[in-house]
Amino acid sequence: MRAVDVIIKKRDKGNLTNEEIRFFIAGITEGTIPDYQVSAWAMAVLLNGMTDQETTDLTLAMADSGETLDLSSIAPVVVDKHSTGGVGDKTTLVVGPIVAACGLPVGKMSGRGLDFSGGTLDKMEAIPGYRVNLSQAEFLSQLKSLGFVLTGQSADLAPADGKLYALRDVTGTVPSLPLIASSVMSKKIAAGAHAIVLDVKVGNGAFMKNLDDARRLAELMVAIGKLSGREVIAVLSDMNQPLGQAVGNALELKEAIETLNGEGPADFLEHCLSIASYMLLLGKKANSLESARKLAEDALNSKSALEKFRQLVIAQGGDVSFVDNPEKLPAAENQLVVNAEQSGYLTQVHAQTIGETAVDLGAGRAKKGDTIDQGVGILVHANVGDYLAKGDPLFTIFSKSSNDSEKAKARLLDTLKWSETKVDPLPLFYEVIGKV
Ligand code: URA
User: Fold this and answer.
1) 85 pocket-lining for ligand 1 (C-beta < 6 Å)
2) Which residues of 214-224 are buried (b: 16+ CB within 10 A; e: fewer)?
3) Ligand 1 mean position to 172 CA, how many Å?
4) Where are the beta strands (DSSP E) in 152-274?
5) pLDDT tens-digit readout, 92-106
6) Which tens digit of pLDDT belongs to each residue from 128-149?
7) Pick the catalytic residue: 64, 89, 115, 161?
8) pLDDT value of position 189
9) pLDDT, position 169
10) Catalytic one among 10, 22, 81, 82?
11) Block means of pLDDT (10 residues each) for the chain, length 436 residues?
């Protein structure tokens, strides 16, 4: 079989067989298919789609590209969560510690920034020394001893996704339902969690722009999870405006630490408590959503979640003084506050444009292997539905130069839409797919 023939078949809208998919994924994993062919294939998949059967075959092939962990010796239930990617989405950094602090082990394999969406690993690397490349043995031993792991794909676990993910980020091939479903679920299956909560983002700052597409993605991922014997639910959540205030790696990490300290933005806190509650319920730590919520709130208020996060950072080699004193985290010196140039109600705070502006400031990658700047980003001070008087702060831009700040300012002001009459705030959640 030749890689080029598989690319041509997908280019010509053919359905790939399991054998062809397995051949291609093996070639990605072993490095025998070069990046340019992988990129061409990913573009063909993005343009022509896949059947549910192809997506399932692709997911299982990617999960099988490395080891698949068996966590049954660690605990009866290990839980995991995954977001399909958004702007300002630092949920894992708060939800992981909350759930682990409630005594439910969390084994999480995260990704890097993807297109305009941020990545948990990039955020965690703002802490000097924090290791995101744990081996399989380290993953298992830390999950057993601490009940919490937050790492990336090692060479052992779903390596095909690791390679494909990095290429998709810089080849315009991210917003593809089969590529997202297989990327997310291959990692989840390989990492072995028994119960998985998927946070499927929908809106302009998500890869699924409308509810129908998000629902389809969610249903497919839930079905693939079930096929692999996992308990999976998907929560459809809004991503038309950034979640919380901070967009950019160290800024987001700082906001997550503030939230663990009880000082985070209300929308972000509410989002985290809801996701944590679903994880606790699915992981059978509680028998109703209300009691799960109470557990999550207690873990936050007692600071046991914060303590769990500290222990995670120490276990993975990070300098915990950056958690204890988040002002030590990198912050670009150029800081420009952008104020409202008019009064009124905000009707649009466009998440995708804000995410793209942050990437252009240096928070994401333009090509594979680019280094990112941890200290740049944007604080968004207002949400849809807020009333602002002229002169009220809208954004703070953290950049490498005043020229960058000015460019970002023009773009950010342009993303806003205003109304003279009252508008409703955006909902946090739309619906839940799958049974708890
Ligand atoms: N998260 C992933 O892990 N993969 C995607 O493709 C999108 C979000």
Assistant:
1) yes
2) bbbbbbbbbbb
3) 13
4) 195-202, 231-238, 246-247
5) 999 999 999 999 999
6) 999 999 988 899 999 999 999 9
7) 161
8) 92
9) 87
10) 82
11) 97 98 97 97 97 94 92 90 95 98 93 85 96 91 95 83 91 94 93 93 96 96 93 97 97 98 96 98 96 98 98 98 97 97 97 96 86 95 97 98 97 97 97 91
Residue nearest to atom 8 of ligand 1 (CA): 84
Looking at this protein, which amino acid is placed at residue 8?
I
CA of 184 to the centre of ligand 1 (A): 5
Which bin fits 245, alpha (ψ -120 to 50), beta or left (φ > 0)? alpha
Which residue matches tokens 């993975």?
Answer: 316
Closest CA to 267 of 249, 247, 241, 229: 241
Judge whether 169 and 40 are in contact, CB under 8 Å.
Answer: no
The catalytic position among 83, 110, 183, 277 is 183
Q: Is the CB of 191 under 6 A from ligand 1?
A: no
Which of 84, 89, 199, 220 most suits a substitution to test ligand 1, by most atoms within 8 Å of the C-beta?
84
Q: Which two tokens mark 7?
A: 């690319």
3-state helix/strand/coil string of 79-134 = EEEEECCCCCCCCHHHHHHHHHHCCCCEEEECCCCECCECCHHHHHCCCCCCCCCC
Q: Are 382 and 349 in contact (CB under 8 A)?
A: yes
Domains of the chain: 3-63 (1.20.970.10), 79-325 (3.40.1030.10), 330-419 (3.90.1170.30)
pTM above 0.85, yes or no: yes
Print burial letters for 369-385: b (CB count within 10 Å at least 16), e (below 16).
eeebbbbbbbbbbbbbb
82 classed as catalytic: yes
Q: Does residue 161 carry a catalytic annotation?
A: yes
Nearest atom (ligand 1) to Cα of 168: 6
Per residue in 240-259, is it b (16+ CB within 10 Å) or e — as a string? bbbbbbbbbbbbbbbbbbbb
46 lines ligand 1 (CB under 6 A): no
Ligand 1 pocket residue status of 376, Cβ below 6 Å: no
CA end-to-end distance (rounded Å), the chain = 43
Contact by Cβ (8 Å): 306, 260: yes
